Every structure is written in structure tokens, then in C-alpha cells.
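Open question from group meeting: does this chain pack into something compact, or does most of it stay loose? Before anyone orders reagents, we agreed to write out a predicted structure and look at it together. Recording both the input and the output here so the notebook holds the full record.
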Amino acid sequence: MFRHQLELLSPARSADIGIEAVNHGADAVYIGGPDFGARANAGNAVADIARLVAHAHRFHSRIFVTLNTILRDDELEPARKLIWQLYDAGVDALIVQDMGLLELDLPPIQLHASTQTDIRTPEKARFLQDVGFSQMVLARELTLPQIRAIADQVQGATLEFFVHGALCVAYSGQCYISHAHTGRSANRGDCSQACRLPYTVSDSLGRIVAHEQHVLSLKDNNQSANLAALVDAGIRSFKIEGRYKDMGYVKNLTAHYRGLLDDLLEQRPELARASAGRCSYTFTPDPDRNFNRGSTDYFVNGRLDDIGAFDSPKHAGLPLGWVTKVTPEHFEVVLDEGVAELNNNDALTYYDLQKELVGLPINTATLIDAGRRLWRVVPKEAMASYKDLRRDTYLHRNRDMAWDRLLDKKSADRRVGLWLQLSDAADSADGLALTATDEAGVEVTATVPCAHEAPKDRARAEATLREHLGKLGGTVYALEDLSITTAQPWFVPASTLNALRRGAIDALDAARLAAHERPARAAPVEPPVLYPDDSLSYLANVYNQKARDFYARHGVKVIAAAYESHEALGEVSLMITKHCVRYSLSLCPKQAKGVTGVQGTVKAEPLTLVNGSEKLTLRFDCKPCEMHVVGRMKKSVLNQSQREEQARLAAGVPMQFYRTRPVPRAA
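C-alpha cells returned:
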């Protein structure tokens, strides 16, 4: 990818969703392979990925496969074999976290640094560029000046940034709560999402400062208003989160950001799209219609007061209207002005008196007064089951069946610009020549033998030539111009014209595929550059001997094992985050600065989080303005892991991973 190109990077849970992402304007798609992707339930067979590759390359869009978990030693060889299969399937790049992969015999496939590599500094980014990464996704917590500082140091790699979707509250790759409490490792693609749970927060004196609040749950990322600023800061790949999301989400969000980037490209002629073709849609994109927890642009423009989705981690939906009447069988609602009509099987939400979000799926909805926009709604469940639903309750709609049906159909058309020129063939025996040139300048010429027969009606003959040569409906092309430079508009049978057009299009398809260059693997700097630090803690996620060898080769002297190796058994930071609960609850000492009667009385003392039997401690590092969620691994998790190791050993398939200490015994 060239530095003047902007890339829209869309997610795909499946090959079919990836195909629709391409159809709706994605310059690139990232998708999980059959194993080792950081979304455990979003894997795809290599054959399906090959099908997606074939479709994407028609538009010079690229396919990236996520192989971004940390790997045990016994998983490295299966991973290496899979990478070769993906390369043979035509995949353009791998998104990886585990540095052990760089020590293997890999094909010349481009490598991208996953968000799990936690890139927050120019030094880290420069190191990853120098060891062979061609593209890297920066930490979502960065501000525009911090992004610009990285861009100034990284000239040989493309910088990627998440612009939409769910936000991990932790620095990516720096969250171990799931593994500590359940044995499910976020760094191995199986996060239990403890951050979305409700917690009671108490201070050092035991006073409750928040009761049953989702204080670690964030709103969703939305950088729609910041794309130009991100371009100026050095971002060139704009990534939509969502490899677990459905088809409608990917269609809608891809179309939304495609439109915004196209508008930006029109204003900035020095920039260009990273793939070919323009899209048209049967719907108007609207990101608010998809699952979201409210929106924030997070830290791009500095720390903000309102980034949390503390009331609920669920999707409330779009504003709908007010309840006017409740009966034992149904209720009535007046829709707000401009709200589309209700449908059977829509889903509504409201907040009960405890501010818990309640879902209310509709069985039937009937318009009873068009002038007042008054509807009678019979819900799926008995009215008595809907707690606190009463007159003057405000409703939202989080599923609109009319919208869903619209996106269930074909909803986009992507076409590559095409210029055709009909001329007399240089060799008179060939008759006519048709030259086809696409928007990227790929050009082919097809010929067909035919007699040069003068027409009886020149205007009608020319119209016939244009009609049959312009029939491109079953192709990926949109005719921009057709020039006829023959001596005169010859009379040519329709069958001959159709054969000529098909020959030119087939030749152009082949030439375009041949012109698609798979991006090259970047060569690492020699001799090996030094890693920015000479020691690594469990936070570096070193889980195999090859990863340990990689860091040693780059000058690291002390290399601790990954948290999943079960050597950090005491109280440690299970999550490091830029989100600050004290700040969100207006308990930050910096907020109290200068406030008479308050300044000096508010201190960044630890807080305690409790959810059921789970207890965590919040500690605050005010200099970098970071929060650490501190806890320890459950004994049950450790014992279960040891039993699994012993069972595999007994079965003759030992589990092998990097350790710095002797193997412990099961309790």
C-alpha cells in the first residue's frame, strides 16, 4: 500500500460477510482462519478464505488473516503449516501478535502487527517496523499528537487505527482478568468479558461510591468526525472492529465509512483509494442502527468526562416515543416525529426504576391513530413480566425489522470504471478491435473477424454498436465512455458484437487479476535492532521458546514468561487501562485542583471492585494517568491447568510452553 492511499479495513466473521464487505466498499478485509485467531468462535476454513480472496482481488481489495493469539511451543508447527496454506490460498497479509512466528520458516507473506502488540510509543512502533512489520494497528488510547509522534518515527510501515466498534477497556494485550478468574485467556482468543459486568465500588474506608455499576464498560468507538485529523496525524488504514458481528453490521458500517472516506478523498486530491471501484447502495448508512453502547471518540482529542457505558453494556437502540397507556394485554405508544412506523417482531427497550435496561420484543404492532402517530403494541411475553412499564415510560427501538429486511437483500453494487474504444483492427482479417481500459490503467484489446459492411442507417448502426458493447450488467464494470473510431459505424451482427465485448471483458478480468500484486514481506534490519527495553515482564506475553529467542536476539536480557504460563501467582496487574474510574466518578485529585474546600482532600487512594465473589483492587498511577486493576489467579484455574497438562502428557501429546521455573504440581 502506498503512503498516499487510504485503506478502509472491514471485519468478517465469515467469507460471505467478507464478500459483502468488499461489495460495500472495503479496501481490505480481516478474517480469522481455522485456528489461532483472537476470536475463538470466528474461524474459517482455508477454502472459504480462498473464495473470499478470489472475490476481493477482482477489485484489488486485500485479505488479511488474523493469526494473533500467543502460541505454545507445541502449536508453532501447526501454525507454520497453516500460514503456508493461507499463502497458497492467495492471502495478502497475516495479522500477528506472537513474535515467535518471526523465528519460523514462513512464506514471503506480509506481516501486520496486531492490536494485541500494544503499540503506544514511537520506540515500540519503530522496533516493529525494523523487525519486518509492514503495517501496525496503534493503541486505541492514543491522542492525535501521540499518533503524529509515532508517524514521524515510522516512515516504512502503514499506520492503522480503529475507527469504529466496541472498545476494550484495557490496553490490548494487557488484560488477564478473564484468565485469572476463568482460565479463558484473552490473549488466546477466549475473553470472558469481565469488563462488562456490574461492580460495586468502595473506597479505602469501605464506603460505597458506586453500586452495581458497569464501571469498566466503555461506550463504543466512533471516529466519524475525526477522519481528516487522523489522516493528518499519519493514519492510512481505518479499521472497523467486529469479527463477531453480523452481516447487517458489516454492510452498514462499511458503507458509512466508505462514504466518509470518499468525501475526504474528493477534498484531498493528493490522496487515493487503496482499491478499485465505486459503490452504490439501496439504503442510507446509519451507524446508530447497529448494536452500540453509545459513542465516544475515546482519547483521540484528549481525556473526556463521558466515555463509560456504566448503566448497561447492552444496546438501547434509537429513540422511539412515549407510552401513553398500559393495559393487562397491551400498551399504547406515541412515536416521536420522524420515527419510522413500527413492525411486527421489532424489539424495544426501556429503563426500569433501577436503571436496568429491559428488552421488550413486539408480537404485533397496530396503528390506531395516524394523526397522533399512536400505536397499540402487544408484546411477546405477558404484560405483567415487564417490570416498571407504565405511562410516560420512554421507549427505544433496538431492532427494526424493516431495516433488517432491507439489509438481508442485495444492498450494494460495486463497479470498476471502464473505458471502451472500438476501432478497425490493424489486420483487416481481424475486422474489429475493442480496447478496454479500467480506472487503474490496465488495458487489453480483443479482436473479432467480420466484414466491414456499410450500414443503411448510420445513426441506427451506431446506436446498435453502443447498445451491445455497453451491456456490462453481469460484470464488475461501469461504462464511463465508449468511443467509436472506426472508418464509419459498420453494420455488425449483434452476436459478433457480444462475442467481441465478452472477449475484451474476459481478457481484462485476467489482466486485472495478474496486475494485483500481493504485498511483499518487509525485510528486517540487519544486524538485528535492539528492543527498547532490556527486560520483559509477563506483560510481554512470551509463551513459547521461539518468542523468547526472538527477544534475546534483539538484546533483551531478562524475559519473564507469559501470564498464561502461571508463574505470576501473587497479586499483579490483571488489567492496565487509560480509563480511570476515579475520574469518571469525579474523584480524581486533578479534578479537585483549585476547588475551594476540596483541593487536597481528594487523593488517588485505591478503590475496591466487587462482583459476587470476585474482588479486585483499583490502583492509580497518576503520572502517566493510568489505572491498574489488581488481583490474583484463582487456585481452581491453576489446578485445572495442571490437570490438563498431566492428562495431555498421559495421552502422549504434551503441552509445551515457555517457563522460567520448574513445573509445579497439581494441588
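Observations to bring back to the group:
The chain has four domains: 5-167+220-275+283-289, 169-218+570-667, 314-408, 412-515.
DSSP finds 15 helices and 30 strands in the chain.
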